[in-house]
Amino acid sequence: MHGRDTAGRVHDEPTHAYRSPYQRDRDRIVHSSAFRRLAHKTQVFTGTMGDYHRSRLTHTLEVASIARTVGRTLGLNEDLIEALALAHDIGHPPFGHAGEDILNECLAEHGGFNHNRQALRIFEVLETRYPDFPGLNLSREILAGQQSRSDKLRPVDAGGRLLEVQAVDSADSIAYNAHDADDAVELGMIDVNELDASSIWRLASVNARRRYANLDAHQFRRAAVHELLDLFIGDLIKASRQRLAEVNPSNALLAAFQPHALIASSPELAEQKMELQRLLFERVYRHPIVLDQRARAGAALREMFAQYVADPAPLPRRFLAIAESEGVHRAVGDYLACMTDHAALEEHSRGI
C-alpha cells in the first residue's frame, strides 16, 4: 500500500512537508495518552509478579519489530505496518483479557466491550489532542485495519485486509506464542522441559543446542526462544512469498480482497503453533496463580463499574459528557478501560 494511494482521513488535512501519511499516524499513536498507558497494563502476567515479563507496551513493540522485519523482506509498506502494529492493542483495558471479559459482562446490555472496537473509540473519540477534530484523525487504512480485527469478517466482507494488516496479525501471533512461553518459564509457572510437549519448541531446542555448546539453563532458554522466533518468522516469509507469487496481485486492493490471507504461516507450522498455544493455555493461562489474579482484578473492576453507574458524579468531566450523549454505562466503561492496572487497584482500594 503506497502512501500516495491513501483514502485520506475523515477530517481533511493538508499533506505534511516531510512525513508520509503513515509516519504521521505512527507519531500520533506514539504521542497519545492511551499508548503511554500500555506500559502499565497487563499482557498476561501482572506487575506484582516481577519486572521481567512483558507488559502490553513491550508486547506491542515486539510485534512492531517482527512485523517490520516481515514487511521489509516482502516489500510491504513499513511505515504503515509500524503504525498498525503500534495501534493494534491500544484498546486493552487494565488486567488484560480478564479486564476485557469483565467489562464485556458489565456492558452486555449496552453494546458489550471488545478491545479492538475500543481502540477505534480511542482513535475517533476519546483522545483529544488536536483543536480541529476529535480523536487522532488517523488514516482510513489504519481505521479499516482495526475494524477488520474487531469484526473478524472474511476479507471480502471487511472491505479488504491489506497485506500490511495481515503482516501485523501474523506478527502478533508469533510474538505472544514465543514470549508468553519465555515469561512463563522465567516466572516458574512451567518448566522449560515441559515445553518439549510442543513439537515446534522441541525443534527450537535442538537448533539451540546444535548452534551453541555448554549453555546454562538461562542461556539455553534465551537461545531456544530466539530459534523459535526464527522458525516462526522464516516460515511466515517463505509461505507468504509462495502465495504472493501464485496470486501475483497487481495492486494493494487486489491483494486485500483475496478470500484467504496471503501473509500467513504454512499449514504445517500453523498446526504446530496451535499445539504450542494449547500447551500454554492448559499450563500457563489456566495456572492457579493467573486465575487467582484474574479473579481478584475482575472483582475490583466489577465493583467499580457498579459504583460509578450508581453515582457517576465523581467521573472526570469528559466522561460525564459521554454519559449525557451515549449513556452512563458506556461512559463508565470508557473510563475504566482507560485506566492502568495500578490506577484501577489504587482507586478501588480507596473505596471509589
TrEMBL record:
Region feature Disordered, mapped onto this chain: 1-23
Q: Which domain of life is it from?
A: Bacteria
Stated family: Belongs to the dGTPase family. Type 2 subfamily.
Annotated HAMAP family: dGTPase_type2
Query: Known SUPFAM superfamilies for this protein?
Result: HD-domain/PDEase-like
Q: Does the keyword Metal-binding apply?
A: no
This chain belongs to the protein called Deoxyguanosinetriphosphate triphosphohydrolase-like protein
In the record, biological process GO terms are: dGTP catabolic process
